[in-house]
Design brief:
alpha+beta, 39% strand
Amino acid sequence: MRLIEKQMLDAVNNKSEWEKDNTLVTYLAGKNVSSIFLHGNHIALYHHNTSTLEPNERTFKVGPTTTTRSRLNALGACANIRKFKACLDGVEL
């Protein structure tokens, strides 16, 4: 795991605001969720009440980059790119 991904996870786990290079984490206290962005594009929501990750399928489908895949995997999603198509949990989007 890359250092930036470890720092991103720390921000999510600590419910804090964090930004570095192309990655941003915001915490929405009213909803108790962390929102994760890459290059200004929303890639996932982390629900702290239920400890669940909700990847943004639309963003990953439209831009299935290796960086997006890497960030989602670091967050705990099973994101892959097969034949230039985005896949989450083995299902093509």
